[in-house]
Amino acid sequence: MRAILLCGAVRPMVISGMLPLRQLSIAVSLLALAHPLAAQNYQGKELVKASLVADTSAIVPGKPFTVGLLLRMAPGWHTYWKYSGDAGLPTEIKWNLPPGWKVSEIQWPIPLKTIDPGDILTYGYQDEVLLIQEISPPAKIDTSAVKLSAQADWLVCEKICIPGSANLALELPTSTLGEPKNTELLARYRRLLPQMFPDSKTATASWSRAGKDLDLKISGEQIANYKTLDFFPVPKGNTVVGHPSVESRTGNTISFKIPIESADESLSSMPGLIVFAQDENGSDRSAWELAGTQIAAATSIAQPSHGLATFLLFGFIGGFILNLMPCVLPVISLKIFGFIKHAGQDRRGIFRNGIAFIAGIFVWFIGLALLLIALKSAGHQITWAAQFTNPYFVLTLSVIVLVFALDLFGVFEITLPQALTHRMLDSADREGEAGSFFQGLFATALATPCTAPFLGTAIGFAFTQSSAVILLMFVAVAAGMSAPYFLLSAQPAWMKFLPQPGPWMVHVKQFMGFLLLATLLFLLYVLGAQRGLEGAIWASCFLLVIAIACWMKGAFIVPTASPFKRGFVLVVMLLLLLGSGFYFIGDKFQSSRIDIAQSASGGGWQAFTPERLQSERDQGHAVFVDFTAAWCLTCKFNEKAVLQNSEVRDAFQRHSVVKLKADWTNGDPVITKLLQQFGRPGVPLYVLYPGKSQEPIVFPELLTKNILLDKLETITVASR
Amino acid sequence: MKTKLILTAITTLAAGALYASDVPPVGTAAPDFSAPDANGKTQSLSEYKGKYVVLEWFNPECPFVKKHYGSDNMQKLQAEYTGKGVVWLTIDSNAPGAEGNITADQAKKIMDSWKTKQTALVLDPDSKVAKLYGAKNTPNMVVIGPDGKIVYEGAIDSKATPNPADIPSSTNYVKAALDEALSGKPVSNAQTKPYGCSVKYKSS
């Protein structure tokens, strides 16, 4: 009856234009005085009753409590979710809190999805909704009661839409103890809050771009238990999103298609909810919240349609770029030096050597892939360069580097075991091939800490994929890395551009030894960051004994020496190695520890913890997080060239950005999880959290001053 | 994409043409239409080839539309750009029986009392034109270039609220697009998310 009256009453009034438009524009009962309860009346009908509720009878200083805006809508009328869909407007709450008080973002219950004639899709609430927020009072409150006021603005629609607004207040006494209040109501709406997206053991999400559509694939056992699944998007900025639909569904996997109507080609994901229910809009509905990331469009990484082929191409290019990384460069020089040595040989010999080197590269990567697949299926959180978080891996690499350096200096010659050597002495070629093979292995082992930009994206993609794809990915990387050697050995004619062999080669060889020692310094620095100065010193002691052992081999285990003498020296060598290994490494190095939090301080940078990030964001601060590790050269480069640049430092200060450093040197599992949330297999990762309600901005792995400054400027505009 | 559009078109026709189709992308040809205006004259997009055309979806009862008419914001825009030779077509696509649907007489009365300055108020009660443009909101704005291609589509301005007090501090996207286009520059913000009430299509 009332609805009929309403429809009848509205039309003639507006169309006749009898009332001044300025009064018509907002037909709202705006209460001048703040009350705990307010009603929106329209045409004599109460549309919305708004009130504030708290979970406690009293405020305890320093103890956060929960408040909620309760909106009760007249039958048939609805208010909107944080993304309202094709029409409508989200409800807003503006708190007016005393200084020192903080309020969290709104926690929105999972909305209902409505489709109106004309395929107009909206997300909102019918009958009633409670929008929950957390309020943190200061540790000291001087008054005996506190009045907290808020202005709420909403749009309520049936067939027509009416904006509503209310000034509400909540007055609570301060006390040392508060009685629980509104427990049933809060519990009812907390059940309807989305959950965090679960860990990778329970479910995985992967994004891809196919033309204008975003594809979202979710895998997890829970999927099979629900009749209806849906994706509710939360597009950011000017992104115009179409209606998400289920593209395919089989057992534990579901794919959503999310059409993007705006020309956002760099868009690679979108925040939103994965909604589970037995019936659409059922009261049993539950959801996982998926945080999207916004990739700062800067390099060619951000291209549409990242299909498998594209990612394999990235893997190939990434592999190629690995050759240029500072941690591989010395070995590459070694190899080129090898090519020069072979330049005088016949073509087939050169080709065989090249292929052996390439085989070394492939064996390393395939081995790594198999290891990762094995670990992944065992449920470990495995990430690229993860082996560098293990100090024993770094130590082993240090030993290899030192031994190679000593070999280059001529302290001793690396030979294969006697039985093999004897057989191979006949054919110098074959020994060269074996050497080339191990050089291939060695070069790639050194390459892993340098997550080159392309490689990061490609491997990141691979980690969300099946084992076969991971294997393919690593093969692509191996192919990319070996491409230049393949070309040079297949076309040795191009080697004529390389200089002629001569005595200078000995000097070059020795000089290469120093480059390897420089690499050793870097590895010791990593060990120092992981195990402290003491740890690095104990490791160095062990390395010294290894050097002595190498010298003994070079000086005494020579073909002219008697078998007895050789055997004796060998036993002494082994005893030395075992003894120092047990003492320096098994005991001293093992027990060296370092406080990681200390290593993060300096230059205005503070140690990262998820709680820290949350509290800074809750206070409305912009936060920049530098995910780094001592062994990550790309990170070090970015820090020196960009983050410590005076212009950047000024910009950080000007926009009062909180700078947090997340140190992954020792493979902190909390940071590992965050890296995975951003789809990254390792460091570096740079994330800017602009403001409270804005999505984090992810920067490219090769950070540049301009991208960072640009993005810092946009935040200020956005938060204004 | 094209096959998809064709498929959508076919299914839409088959389903009785009840659903808004996809929004035609910026840079593509604006779909042609013919519909009567409040004065009974037929308005066709094709007759304005060579001119800039603004399409504005309208509902006299929608608070978001009222925000811009009540503050004189829309009228000023209409006067300014029709003065510069731009064709401004206001379109009411609300179905009969739904809020915002108007007859020719009602339309004339609104134009008169609201002192609107558009070229014509087009009546589209069967939502044909709205479907062609995938229009879902009032106001929803489309700017078409002299070559018949869409140069802008989306919201009227940057602040998605029904409050007229927000108009002075917001960026008017339609004004920005027209200013850029008229001075021969590419439109820097060519697509935004429209905000407002829904277009009231006929219920099935």
Verbal overview:
The complex is a heterodimer of chains A (720) and B (204). By secondary structure, chain A is an alpha+beta fold. Chain A has 4 domains: 149 residues, Thiol:disulfide interchange protein DsbD, N-terminal domain (Immunoglobulin-like, Sandwich); 97 residues, Immunoglobulin-like (Sandwich); 284 residues, no CATH class; 123 residues, Glutaredoxin. Helices cover 43% and strands 22% of the residues of chain A. Chain A has 19 helices and 25 strands. Chain A has a 6-stranded mixed beta sheet with strand order 20-25-24-22-23-21, with helices on both faces. A 5-stranded antiparallel beta sheet of chain A has the order 1-2-3-9-6, covered by helices on one side. In chain A, strands 12-19-18-15 form a 4-stranded mixed beta sheet, with no helix packed on it. Chain A is elongated. The N terminus of chain A is likely disordered. Chain B is an alpha/beta fold and 204 residues long. In chain B, the strands form 3 sheets. Chain B has a 5-stranded mixed beta sheet. The longest helix of chain B is centred in the first third of the chain and has 13 residues. The radius of gyration of chain B is 16 Å and the shape is globular. The N terminus of chain B is likely disordered. The interface between A and B is large, with 42 and 55 residues.
